[in-house]
Amino acid sequence: MHQRQCSGCKSLVTLAVAALLAMAPGSAGAAESACRAPPFRAFDFWLGHWQVELADGSRAGRNRISAEQGGCVLVERWEGAEGGTGLSMNFFDPHAGQWRQLWVSPGTQIDIAGGMVNGSMVLEGHIVYLREGSRYPFRGTWTPLPDGRVRQFFEEAREPGTWTSWFEGFYRRLPE
Q1: How far apart are CA 141 and CA 90, in angstroms?
Q2: Is the CB of residue 5 less than 8 Å from the CB of residue 12?
Q3: Burial per residue of 36-52, b for 16 or more beta-carbon CB atoms within 10 angstroms, e otherwise
Q4: pLDDT tens-digit profile of 105-162?
Q5: What is the pLDDT of residues 8-17, one digit of tens each?
Q6: Cβ atoms within 10 A of the Cβ of 120, count?
């Protein structure tokens, strides 16, 4: 059988493939423009690779927060000093007008939402302890500090209306 070659078909196929890739979910070209508005950028101060220390200066772990899906989601990858791990997705929900974090680790799940309050990102919701099957109100506050660090402070309320400290960490930026 004799095959006929189309002049320009190769460049047409290349152009078609490039167009399909640009329209694919998660591609930078398709998603970037949708998440450029200021509310989508409010949590960008948390982006980066961090050493996390407790108030006494001891090492708590490392955390890498990256912008993914054209900047529409911040993905957190936690590695604790004692070997624990966790992952969260953080995104701005334009319909609710607030930020939301969904955290999952081998022992806990956290679902919190909120926004900027006096220069800090404040998210509230619930924590679920998987082994116990218990659920409590939970709140997280991220505050950018003048020296470039970020303070992360978590609280839970096992008794209604009584908030107790759950974790306080100070993020120090590491070189990428």
Answers
A1: 13
A2: no
A3: eeeebeebebbebebbb
A4: 999 999 999 999 999 999 999 999 999 999 999 999 999 999 999 999 999 999 999 9
A5: 444 433 433 3
A6: 17
Q: Which two tokens stand for residue 38?
A: 């200021």
Q: Which of 152, 143, 96 is nearest to 120 (CA)?
A: 143
> Which helix H or strand E contains 138, and what residues bound it?
strand 134-144
pTM, to two decimals:
0.81
* Closest C-alpha to 55, from 173, 153, 160: 153
Condensed to tens digits (0 to 9), the pLDDT of residues 78-108 reads 999 999 999 999 999 999 999 999 999 999 9
Fill in the amino acid letter for 37: A
Break the chain down into helix, strand, coil percent, rounded to 5: 15, 55, 30
* Euclidean distance between CA atoms 9 and 65, whole angstroms: 43
Q: Of 38, 128, 41, 139, which is closest to residue 91 (Cα–Cα)?
A: 41
Cβ–Cβ < 8 Å for 54, 14: no
